[in-house]
Amino acid sequence: MLEKTIEKVLVTEAEICAKSQELGQILTTAYADKNPLMVAILKGSVPFFAELTKRIDAHIEMDFMVVSSYHGGTSSSGEVKMIKDLDTSVEGRDIVIVEDIIDTGRTLLYLKELLLYRKANSVKIVTLVDKPEGRVVDIEADYVGFTLPNEFLVGFGLDYDEHYRNLPYIGILKEEIYKTEG
Ligand code: PRP
Ligand code: MN
Ligand code: MG
């Protein structure tokens, strides 16, 4: 049913699994004995966070932040809004921010600066998708799953007006969906 609204699949479920395994192994090595605080940025990072963290074979802790900048549309509002903060103190901790996508970079710049201001020992970013053509601020992820073109993507956490996050793959929505629903 949802599949009929997808123009094209860009990253399959199997590719996401394989990439998560690869990134999980890299993080296992990089963070062995560091007990990093893995921070999921809700809501978009939920599927990738689950996929990735189960593949890290080392002690980690998990916490969650809710921030939003898109407010339902297809382009960034430019204003990052904190809706729920962390429960854990980050002072002296090694932090790994987990995101579904970095586009303009505003969300991650805001989060990284905030966590460094709070005296985190280190802040690294892992993102499932990077859209480098969308960047308006100077920030890069440390670990990237897939670099994709500047199209409006949905699935595996990525939403259009809160829908399609539950697709098990990443794809491009048919244009008629924006026209009728947007
Ligand atoms: C999306 C996405 C990233 C951010 C990336 O979140 O999940 O967090 O935008 O865009 P940027 O690089 O231009 O800042 P959104 O604000 O839509 O909230 P959501 O995760 O609840 O969908
Ligand atoms: Mn998000
Ligand atoms: Mg969104």
UniProtKB/TrEMBL annotation:
GO biological process: GMP salvage; guanine salvage; hypoxanthine metabolic process; IMP salvage; purine ribonucleoside salvage
InterPro entries associated with the record: HGPRT (IPR050408), Hxn_phspho_trans (IPR005904), PRTase-like (IPR029057), PRTase_dom (IPR000836)
Cofactor dependency: Mg(2+)
Keyword Magnesium among record annotations: yes
A Pfam family per the record: Pribosyltran
Annotated GO MF terms: guanine phosphoribosyltransferase activity; hypoxanthine phosphoribosyltransferase activity; magnesium ion binding; nucleotide binding
Catalytic activity annotation: IMP + diphosphate = hypoxanthine + 5-phospho-alpha-D-ribose 1-diphosphate; GMP + diphosphate = guanine + 5-phospho-alpha-D-ribose 1-diphosphate
Keywords assigned by UniProt, alphabetized: Cytoplasm, Glycosyltransferase, Magnesium, Metal-binding, Nucleotide-binding, Purine salvage, Transferase
GO cellular component, one term: cytosol
Pathway in which this enzyme or protein is active: Purine metabolism; GMP biosynthesis via salvage pathway; GMP from guanine: step 1/1; Purine metabolism; IMP biosynthesis via salvage pathway; IMP from hypoxanthine: step 1/1
Compartments where located: Cytoplasm
Spans through the membrane: none
Domain Phosphoribosyltransferase: 25-160
EC number: 2.4.2.8
Class in the EC hierarchy, top level: transferase
Function: Purine salvage pathway enzyme that catalyzes the transfer of the ribosyl-5-phosphate group from 5-phospho-alpha-D-ribose 1-diphosphate (PRPP) to the N9 position of the 6-oxopurines hypoxanthine and guanine to form the corresponding ribonucleotides IMP (inosine 5'-monophosphate) and GMP (guanosine 5'-monophosphate), with the release of PPi.
Family under the similarity heading: Belongs to the purine/pyrimidine phosphoribosyltransferase family.
NCBIfam families: HGPRTase
Entry protein name: Hypoxanthine phosphoribosyltransferase
Taxonomic source organism: Pseudolactococcus chungangensis
Taxonomic lineage: Bacteria, Bacillati, Bacillota, Bacilli, Lactobacillales
